[in-house]
Every structure is written in C-alpha cells, then in structure tokens.
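General statements about sequence and structure are easier to judge against a single worked case. For one protein, we set the task of working out the structure tokens from the amino acid sequence alone. The sequence in question and its structure tokens are set out directly beneath this paragraph.
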Amino acid sequence: MLLTRASEYALLSLDVLRKSDNPLGAEQLATELSIPKSFLAKILQSLAKQGILESRKGAHGGFILAKPAEEISVNSIIFAAEGKSPAVFDCTSYSASCPNGSIGTCAISPFLANFQTKIDDFLNDLMLSDII
C-alpha cells in the first residue's frame, strides 16, 4: 500500500498542532497548510476517533494532541488517516488473479511476511516526535 495524501496531511497537521499552544480548527489548519478543508476535516476526525487528537468545542475550540508526540506512533497515524494498516504487499486484493493460485503459500510468501513484520515493527517504534 502506498501512503496517500491522507497520511501526508495527517503528519503535516500534527506538526502544526504540536507547535501550537491553543486548539486549532480544521479551517485554520487547512488554510495554513493549503489543504482542502473538507478532506482535512475527515482526517482530523479520524485522528480524534483513534485517540491521537482531542476535539474541543466552543469559541476557542479545535484540535489538540491528545497525548505527547513521544507517545504517538507513526503506524497509528497512518492507520487513522488511511483506515487500514500499511501493507507492503496485499495478495488478498487480487486472489482471483494470482498467477499460481496459491495465496499465502507461494515461494515469496515467507519473504513478504518477514518484510511486513519489519515494516510494522519500524512504524510502531517510530514516534511522531522522531520525525517532526
């Protein structure tokens, strides 16, 4: 799975929010980052739903980090933004057209599983504070 603009926008938004002393609204973030507001609002809601952001209502409302950047894994950000965990290679998406009809049991399956584990471990150990 390639990371999409959703992950990029999530990371950029989290960087701005990390530096802010006050909650910021979706419109303010969208303007500052030159991101479409409606798309960003969906991403911010997903981040809040996953406990990465806290949404505050009211005149001085907006979004803030729900926990320190040192406690937010990049994997959790990607999952929130994309709606699924990053996959190096997803055989199941084309099981009907697998060249040898052996999803999960072909010669490269052990390599792919090992590679995926390394990516998962890396992204789980990489914190937001490590990249911004």
